[in-house]
Amino acid sequence: MPASTATAPHPHPLAAAARLVMLALIAILTLFATRDVTQLWWIALLAVAGLPSLLAPQHRLIAPLSRVAEVLVLGLAASQVAAVASIGTVDGLGASAVLPYLAVPVTVTALRRRFREGAALLAVTAATLLVSGALTTVGGKLQLGQPGYLAVCAQWLILAALGLYAAGTLHRVMVVRGEGKPQPYAEATRLLTQLRTVARQLPGATLDPGGISEHLLEELRTVAQTDRGAVLSASGGGRLVVLAQSGVDRVDWETTLDADSAIADAWASQQATTAARSQSRSHRGPDVSALIVPLVAGVRTVGLVVLEADAAHAYPPPVVSRVTALTRPAALRLEAALLFDEVRSLATNEERQRLAREIHDGVAQELVMVGYGIDNAMATVFDDADETAEALRTLRGEVTRVITELRLSLFELRSEVDRQGGLAAAIAEYARTVGASGGLRVHLSLDESTARLPAATEAELLRIAQEAVTNARKHAGASNLWVTCEVDPPYAQIEVSDDGQGMADQRPDGRYGLAIMAERAERIRGRLEIRPRQPSGTTVAVVVGTSSRRDNVRDSAAPEGE
C-alpha cells in the first residue's frame, strides 16, 4: 500500500453494522421472492465485493474499485433474482429484493463527499441492469421487455440519484455558510490583519487613540475657532476620559454622563450640540461658545469632540457642518484604535498571567525543593563540620532570597489597576508589599480625583511606578521610600524617591529598567525625569498632561507622611 495513502487500520463499527443489516435484509427478501436458497450466493458475492471498501475506506484505489465491484455484482444479482422470482402477476418485480443494497455504496460516496464517484456508480449500475436484462430471457421473452423489471430498476436508480443530489446540495449549503461565518480564530486573524493595514495608512502610522485624537484636534482647528478642545471617550462607570486636549491652559472637563450638561446630551442623542456656556467645571469666563460633536461609528458612540471659543455664536450651522464632515471618518479611526488598544491590553494581561504561571510552576518549585534538600543535609551532619554547616546556612539564605525575588516578580506580573480601586490604590499596594519584603519604610502621599485616566495610560503608569520601586529596593540600598501619586485627569504625576546610594554608584542592572520606564512614558506621551535627591538617593518622576496647580515636576522632597 502506498505510504502516502491514509488507511483506516480497523473498519468503523457503524459502517460494518450497516452493511451487515442491509445484507441480512436483502437475503431475507431474496429468499421470500425466489424460494431458492442457492440464490443467496449473490448475497455472499456482494459481501466479498464490499469487504475491501469496508476494510480500507480511505484508500485511493482499493475503495473505489471495491464499490464498482459491488454495483456490478448488484446489477447481475438483480437481473438473476428477477428472472427466477415469482411475485404477483407482473414479471420482473423480483429485482426489488436486491436493489435496496444500492443505497450502501451510494451513501458511502455521499458521506465522503465524492459525488462524482456516486454518479459514476449509478451509471455503472444502470448499464449493468440494461446489459444483463438484454441477455436474460424469461419464458422465451427478453427480461428487458418486462414492465415490472424496468419499473423496479428505474425506481431504485431514481431514489439513489435523488439521495445523492440532496447530499450534494446540503454540502454546498454548509460550505457557503461556513465561508460566511469563519471560525473565530480565522476571523480574528482577518480582522487583525486589516487593522494592521489601517494602522499603516493612518496619520503617523499608529493605532494609538491619543495620537489619533491629537491629530483630529489639529484638523478641527483649521475649520473652526478653538480656544480649548478635547476628545473624550467612555471608560465605564458612566464617565468619560480625556484622550487628548488642545489649548493654553488645562481644562477640567465635565466628564460625568449623568450630569446636566451639553456633553451628556450629545452623548445620549448622538447629535451635534451647541451651548453658550463652557463645559468645564471651573471656567467662569463670559461669552463662551461650545460645540460638542459625538463620534459615532455605526450605531455606537465611541467618543465626543468638545470645542470651545471665547466668543459668542462662534459655531453657526456652516461651521458645524465642516466639523462633522471631519469627525465622521475620524470616528471609525478612533473606534479601530480603541478596539486595537483593548486587544493589546488583553494580550498583555494574558502574557503576564502565563509568565506568572510558568515561574510559579517551574523555577519557584525547583528552588523550594533545593531548600528542602539543604535542610535535610544540615539535619544529617553529625560530624564536627562547622565550616560545612556555615556554608549550607549561607546557601540556604541565598535560596530564600531568590524565592522572595520570584514571589515579588509574580506579584508584579499579576498587579493590575482595579477599575473600582484606581491607580493610586494599586501603586500603594505594590509599594507596601515590596517595602515590607525589603525592609523599607514606605511613605505614601496619594491624591486621586474621582475621574479616571484611560485604562492604557493607567496601566503604563503602574508599570513605571513598579519599576522605580523595584530599582530602589534592589539596587539603592535605601532605608526609606517616598511614593507620591497625584491623579487629576488628564493630568497625572507619579514620583518615587529613596534615600539610598544614588544613581552614580548603583549597579548597572537597573539601567535596563530605566530604559523600559522611558519607553513606557513616551508611549503615553508623558515626561520621565530621573534626578538625585538631596542629601542622598534618587527621585524618579513621570508626568502626563499639565496641571492647573503645577506645571513642572515637584521638588525632590516629597511629603513624608505614612
Task: Summarize, please.
The chain has 562 residues and is of the alpha+beta class. The protein has helices at residues 13-34, 41-55, 62-84, 103-111, 115-135, 147-180, 184-201, 209-221, 262-269, 317-361, 363-379, 386-414, 423-438, 455-475, 509-523, and strands at 137-138, 141-142, 228-236, 239-247, 273-275, 289-297, 300-309, 441-448, 480-488, 491-498, 526-532, 538-544.
Structural class of the secondary structure composition?
alpha+beta
**Span between termini:** 80 Å
Helix content: 40-55%
Give the strand line-up of the largest sheet.
4-3-7-6-5
Mean pLDDT over all positions: 79
Strand residue content: 5-15%
Shape designation: elongated
Question: What is the β-strand count?
Answer: 12
Distinct helical segment count: 15
Uncertain runs: 1-9, 505-510, 550-562
SSE succession: HHHHHEEHHHEEHEEEHHHHEHEEHEE
Specify the biggest β-sheet. 5 strands, antiparallel
C-alpha-based Rg, rounded = 41 Å
